[in-house]
Amino acid sequence: MKLKTLTTAILLTLPTVVTHAAALDRSGQSMSAFLQPGNYFEAGISVLDPTVKGKESGESDTKRHISDMADDYYFPSAALKLQIHDKISFGLLYDQPFGASAAYNGNNVFVSNPGNDTILGQDALNGLAAKSIGNLVTAAGAAFAPALQAVTSVTGGNPSNPTQNEILGALQQVAKAGNATVAGGLTSLQQTQTALETAKSYLGTGNTQVDVDTQNLSFVVGFQPTENFNIYGGGVYQTVKGQVSLRGQAYSLFNGYDANIKETGGAGWLAGAAFQIPDIALKLSATYRSEIDHDVDVKESLSVLSFPALNSVLLGLDVTPAQLQAIGTTGKTKITTPQSVNIDFQTGIMENTVAFVNARWVDWSNFSIQPYQFGKISEAVGELVQRPNGFNLVEYADDQWTITAGVGRKFNDKWAGNVSAGWDSGAGNPITTLGPTEGYWNVGLGLQYSPTPATFIAGGVKYFGLGDADAQTGAQAGSNDYVATFEDNYAIAYGLKIGYKF
Question: Which ranges form a coiled coil (predicted)?
Fold first, then answer.
């Protein structure tokens, strides 16, 4: 079983034809094209059709259905590999490694409901009111107990377990008796509550959506000291761009936030090594890709910032003047795409048949996105949601692990195919509302037709069972709180690839 007559025919149809993975991972960043023998070119396109439905749950006050929020998307890839010397090879690889595409619709906490959405969640509003009233009870001192007794004697209530309205009634009696501190506090409380009600009309309209794209161009040089070894490395240029809109009660104050991430580039590197025994169709490779930093200009807007009385409201909610001033500043946003490792193994198991295993690790647990102004606002209001240091727009709790295994077989000189199965760990649960699934399992089929020994066309299809997940906002990340649950979802992926050996 020679490598050039067996594995070239079979492994071009491997599951890199179509893919889908956890978090923002898309292409899988395969190096298989560069490790083909001789001179080689390929170009392909993959399409993913996901269905991700759910329902409101957890911290949501309502429990409504959430229709399919995952958009279809496609991504192309291409590779050119030149064997410029017996021991030196060069490769140019293009792919789109990371991305997101989603939009919520219908009537749920991710779609604005003007007139009903509030600037903070109802629990937070109730907590703030209770805190303010408690401070006024303390300020009322000894005068509060007899005032409460007088109020509950009229209402028929229990003074040891009064309602909020009975407490407010008692405080009003204390204020009328001449307690200026309580009187001023009640006026301030009323003004804050009125302003919060007015602020509702300044929240966003529309629906939550996200569209993020990246592009990679890898320049790779390989050195083959012997037929069995290949050591390679090179530089990577990557661009990133995107748009994010947050809408609906789930995002409270950020209902009406938009971020337009201007396309920008960053540089990284990759390095790897491969070992092969052509006579038994054995090949083992390991590739490391570095993280890549991007200093991005993000155009941000938040509709509630146009509310004239917002500053006085936030000051009434214990936001400091320094934090208010920081909200209006601008600056660069740093986005760092994650480092990763790919390991690929194949071996002949019988005549015209190979088995293969591909494994991938991505360092999502150290990934986060916090646009500059989003971060300043989150720090200002963080105390209101028990996040005094602010929070991220997107972050992940766990690293991603993906494993795919299968068998490829050459049927004759023109036809070859493969079957595969895969598993992906996901990047944590609960997970961001902008991508609410936890990993997957999949099964796939690939088929290749070679009209000539030098050319081929390959196609593939995969079915993904997407993992159930609880979805949480950035303000909830790091806790067990969530606002929706997504279950029993799936995706179907299709791919087409052409290749030429020369």
Answer: none
pLDDT value, residue 244: 97
Highest mean pLDDT among 116-120, 313-317, 365-369: 365-369
485 CB contacts (<8 Å, ≥6 apart)?
A: 54, 55, 57, 58, 468, 469, 470, 471
Considering only the C-alpha atoms of the chain, give the largest distance between any 2 of them, rounded to a whole number of Å: 100
178 is written with which tokens? 């001449």
Mean pLDDT of 259-266: 96
Domains of the chain: 3-114+209-501 (2.40.160.60), 126-196 (no CATH)
Instruction: Note whether 256 and 262 are within 8 A (CB).
Output: no
Name the residue type at position 349. Answer: I
380-404: pLDDT as tens digits: 888 877 888 899 999 999 999 999 9
Q: Do 70 and 50 meet the contact criterion of CB atoms below 8 Å apart? A: yes
pLDDT at 20: 56
Q: How far apart are CA 237 and CA 99, in angstroms?
A: 16
Closest CA to 417 of 383, 454, 460: 460
Instruction: Output the average pLDDT for the chain.
Output: 92
Which residue, among 354, 220, 225, has the nearest Cα to 278 in the 3D structure? 354
Across the range 127-133, mean pLDDT stands at 86
List the one residue out of 486, 440, 485 whose CA is nearest residue 463: 440
> Counting Cβ atoms within 10 Å, is residue 49 exposed (0-12), middle (13-18) or buried (19+)?
middle
Q: Report which of 248, 242, 259, 244 is spatially closest to residue 207, judged by C-alpha positions.
A: 248
pLDDT in the model for residue 13: 42
The pLDDT value given to residue 8: 41
Q: Which residues contact 179 (CB under 8 A, 6 or more apart)?
A: 139, 140, 143
| b/e burial code for range 240-271 (CB count within 10 A of at least 16 → b) | bbbebbbbbbbbbbbbbbbbebeebebebebe
